[in-house]
Specification:
mainly alpha; globular
């Protein structure tokens, strides 16, 4: 699946979903309407984007935004980040502090978004979707941080989320 097609689908999900929590179900529905091969190609692209965002600086942003962030939580943060669409995703990759422009909410995680392709594939009779477990095994890229460094690394996010 070409990246443009992927992001077009994500945008359609954002438009159709009434709330952020509705996005996984809407994505599952939209994927179920596609051929099995396209669903598999979507999953491959999704995993590529998860790996691109597997960076220490984004984990630091997630840590500030969520008031802490485990390794599982960071994966769910990246699911949320992809669900926000291409412009937010690309801006966050360029500068994680840009996420300070996202409205505050209770949490920035969307675990079920990451399972939409699997659910659609199974619903279409495809059985188990092929997945790469590199996403779970890959180490974050970049420089690891300490919690004390985060306000200096991400001053806009720190100003917004440390003063709760």
């Amino acid at each position: 699946m070409q990246e443009e097609q992927f992001w077009s689908l994500i945008n359609a999900v954002r438009v159709a979903a009434h709330t952020q929590d509705d996005r996984p179900a809407v994505l599952t529905d939209k994927l179920t309407a596609l051929d099995l091969g396209v669903i598999q190609a979507f999953q491959v692209r999704y995993e590529e984007l998860l790996l691109r965002a597997n960076r220490w600086d984004l984990w630091g942003a997630a840590y500030l935004m969520n008031g802490g962030c485990s390794d599982d939580g960071f994966k769910y943060f990246r699911d949320w980040l992809i669900s926000e669409g291409r412009s937010t995703f690309e801006a966050a990759l360029a500068s994680p502090d840009s996420l300070s422009s996202v409205p505050k909410q209770d949490y920035f995680e969307l675990e079920l978004f990451g399972y939409a392709a699997s659910r659609a594939y199974e619903a279409k009779g495809g059985g188990e979707l092929d997945r790469s477990f590199e996403v779970e095994l890959a180490q974050p890229q970049g420089t690891e941080w300490s919690e004390e460094e985060l306000p200096k690394l991400f001053p806009k996010l720190a100003a917004k989320y440390l003063l709760r």
